[in-house]
Amino acid sequence: MPLAYESLSHGEVVFGFFNIETDMVLLNQYFFFASDFSACVSDLAAREQGPVRADIDAYVLDERDAGDLMGAIQGTRYQGFIGETYKIFPFPAEPEAFRQNPEGYKTRGIIEGIITQYAPLTSITVREERDPASGIIVAIGEYVFTRLQFHNLLNYIWLGGYPRWKDWIRPPYVLDMRDAVAKSPHPLFGISPED
């Protein structure tokens, strides 16, 4: 489930997995794969100094095309991209089955087939900058976060969001991201995600 996070630019924003059978995450109207985001973060973490930036593939959907997450979870409104996803991968009937699938990246082809009906693939920039008032900041497209706020997003991916990774097994891309962040000499990554 996506959760609310604070940003410098837009106040409270929504970030996270929206279906347990895919590794796609949303950041308000941006939809991108956690595996791509993790690879982007690993790339940024490999740099030693200075402002860093990298692009990530994403889809930008308006609210109508994105759909109704709560309606899809409840099985009452299958609208837009999220609704189409829940038709194929419905919310589990048993509460204990509500765990983020660490093999969700394997459904990428199916998810891409659905989302391209709603928006073309585009690119958004993830960049780190210095701000006199806030110190190190990170922008993901138009959304700007403090260093700590950005680390909260990374921690969400590390944990498997809410409801957490199934059987506490993390996908390889998450482990790679954690290792890259932990080894990073860049000031943006002074801490690594923790359990």
Describe this structure in words.
This protein is α+β, with helices and mostly antiparallel strands and 195 residues long. Helices cover 33% and strands 25% of the residues. The protein contains seven helices and eight strands, in the order ββββαβααααβββαα. An eight-stranded antiparallel beta sheet has the order 1-2-3-4-5-6-7-8. Helix 1 runs parallel beside helix 7 (172-183). The longest helix has 13 residues, at 147-159. The protein is globular and about 50 Å long. The mean pLDDT is 94.
Descriptive labels:
globular; 8-stranded antiparallel β-sheet; 195 residues; alpha+beta
What topology does this entry show?
Blueprint: E1 3-7, E2 11-17, E3 24-27, E4 30-33, H1 34-45, E5 53-60, H2 63-66, H3 69-74, H4 80-88, H5 108-115, E6 121-131, E7 135-140, E8 143-146, H6 147-159, H7 172-183
Antiparallel strand pairs: 1-2, 2-3, 3-4, 4-5, 5-6, 6-7, 7-8
Say how many strands there are: 8
> How are the strands ordered across the major sheet?
1-2-3-4-5-6-7-8
Outline: globular
**Residue ranges: pLDDT <50 for 5 or more in a row?**
none
End-to-end gap? 18 Å
> What share of residues are in beta strands?
25-35%
Helix count equals 7
Q: What's the gyration radius in Å?
A: 16 Å
User: Which sequence of SSEs, written as H and E, runs from N to C?
Assistant: EEEEHEHHHHEEEHH
Q: Which structural class matches the secondary elements?
A: alpha+beta
Mean pLDDT across the residues is 94
Portion in helices: 25-40%
